[in-house]
Automatic annotation (TrEMBL):
It comes from Nocardioides ginsengisoli. This is MarR family winged helix-turn-helix transcriptional regulator. Coiled coil: none annotated. The lineage of its organism: Bacteria, Bacillati, Actinomycetota, Actinomycetes, Propionibacteriales. Residues 1-139 form the HTH marR-type domain. Pfam families: MarR_2 (PF12802).
Length: 145
């Protein structure tokens, strides 16, 4: 039986791509014109506690060498810093530097704006249902949740 609508995975990708583009446009408009899409995708995976390059590479689904090159570029542009890992003195963690946190604030503002727009379009109940469904899908689709 032929599917009439696009696969749900494709629909989620379209939404994610839309958010990514809106965030990228806002970051560029805010003057961060040295942040490439590849660098931004790596930086977007950084949490408050930092992450090792090997884990960052696995989550981004790139080689350790590619992740290392991108982290080097981010560090040279002052978006991230490498700090000692408190759990292992031989290891280093990649953390957001103040400039990276400033870019993150721009991204979070745009994400909140998009969420409001989508809620206005779908209505609060459907948006809540969408959020619930996507959170539930993480249990089977996101090994890094």
């Amino acid at each position: 039986m032929a599917r009439r609508d696009p696969h749900p995975g494709l629909l989620m990708f379209i939404g994610a791509r839309y958010v990514e583009q809106r965030v990228a446009d806002a970051i560029l408009a805010a003057g961060y014109d040295d942040l490439t899409p590849a660098m931004a995708r790596i930086a977007a995976r950084l949490g408050d506690d930092g992450i090792r390059v090997t884990d960052l590479a696995a989550q981004a689904r790139v080689t350790k060498q590619s992740a290392s090159v991108l982290v080097d570029q981010l560090e040279r542009a002052s978006y991230v810093a490498r700090v000692p890992d408190p759990a292992d003195a031989r290891a280093r963690l990649v953390v957001l530097a103040p400039r990276g946190r400033a870019v993150q604030r721009v991204a979070r503002q745009v994400e909140a704006e998009i969420e409001r727009e989508w809620t206005d379009h779908l209505g609060a109940e459907r948006m809540a249902a969408l959020q619930d469904a996507l959170v539930a899908l993480r249990e089977v689709a996101d090994p890094y949740r």
